[in-house]
Amino acid sequence: MDIEPNNNSSKLTPMTGYWCLKNGELSDYNQRVFTDLYLPLVGAEALAIYLLLFQKTTDKRIVTERSNHAELLSLLDIDLKSFQNARIKLEATGLIKNYRKYDELGEYYIYDLYLPLNPSDFFRDDLLSIFLYEKIGQSLFNNLVKKYSVNRDILNDAKDQTSKFLDVFRLNSEDLIDTPNDVSIAQNSMQSTPTKSIELNSQKNLDFDLIIDRASQLYRIEKEDINLNKDLIENLATFYDLDEIVIIDLLGRTMDIITNKIDPSELKNMVQQRFEQRVNIQTNEVTETTSQLNSNFNRDDQLLIKQAKELAPAEFLASEKQQTGGFTGTVESRALRNLAMNTSLSPSVINILTHYSLQQNTTLSLPLMETIANDWQQNNIKTPEDALKRIQESRSKPRNPKRRYQNQKSNNGRVEKGTDWSQVKARPVEQSNQDIQERLNRIRHKENN
Questions:
Q1: What are the DSSP calls for 29-62, one per residue?
Q2: pLDDT tens across 320-329, in order?
Q3: What's the pTM value of the predicted model, to 2 decimals?
Q4: How many whole angstroms separate alpha carbon 330 and alpha carbon 340?
Q5: Are 408 and 418 in contact, with CB atoms under 8 Å apart?
Q6: What does each C-alpha distance from 83 to 50, 51, 116, 203 come to in angstroms?
Q7: Which among 297, 289, 315 has a CA at the least distance from the CA of 385?
């Protein structure tokens, strides 16, 4: 039974208890990464605390039998102030989360231990990599980059022929659709390490305070300018599944270096180029999960719904193209992005629209997509399930133009919102006048400079 203290004042003492949780096992490789990348940031005392706390997660099973901090201080041979100073460095670098709790025995701290980031994620983290660079200097920093870099150029032009799970293993089709109860119980009992993920049924939730703070410090981009382009940034983040650190980097690389203003056209182009370089080199496979599927659809539709919910629109387009041996084109992707930004359809619904359009033609058809998007928006299509039902309705509707016209004139003169999209001419998307004008402006800008 948890007991709340009488007041909020709390001060760590040697007699304060502690409890440790861990997210994974600390391997020799993790310790080498810690020594190379984190040790210069946190220091030797923090390393000793980190390793000791990992050991202490294995010898305690009942929280009432917890030890106090005096034991840690004795084993580490440091005082309380040194312990706290080192521990907060571990917290600041994401290796420990610190919680405070109370029970009948009094106050105790919970130390939730996390494994070091893998080197590629560490170097992509703006704060960690810059701080490491400042601590160890250019030469040592570049040596570490070389040590942990993996050259994957050999995969260029190589054909992926890896076997998929269901190509090798056979599962009962009913179990794949309806997860066995024991498996569901096991999944619910497991708590994975929290990670950032995009919520594809709504606009991506970004920390704009962080973006404003870092963009201001690093590139002197004004807060007002970021707020002015907030909708664009949110749309790009949702469409391409970008986090705050990537956005900050892209803002710095595409801003006008004379005025320190965000350049929306360059920002969109850079995001698109980054996406194309990534998805056209290697195939992005979507892993089936065993969560409950909608029994109102067949298995193919159910898996399509899951994929639509799990991928950002750009990733979904790449996956669809790669399944047929195609590639993601700049014009197609830009057209899809503009459509996504100009409608109120959710990203998962946009994905179903993409799937349907590519079934009709090998490349995205802008007239068809705009027609469907208008229909779905007018008919309040909110989920991929709604979108698939609407598609099924379109296939079952009579396609006699005269009869459809008569139906539209009925019902007290109200026009029926038809679903026969077969009459829309399918043609590949073309560059809009705005896109062409943007390219001309960039060419003129380079010529003038």
A1: HHHHHIIIIIHHHH-HHHHHHHHHHHHTTSS--S
A2: 877 777 777 7
A3: 0.40
A4: 15
A5: yes
A6: 11, 13, 20, 42
A7: 297
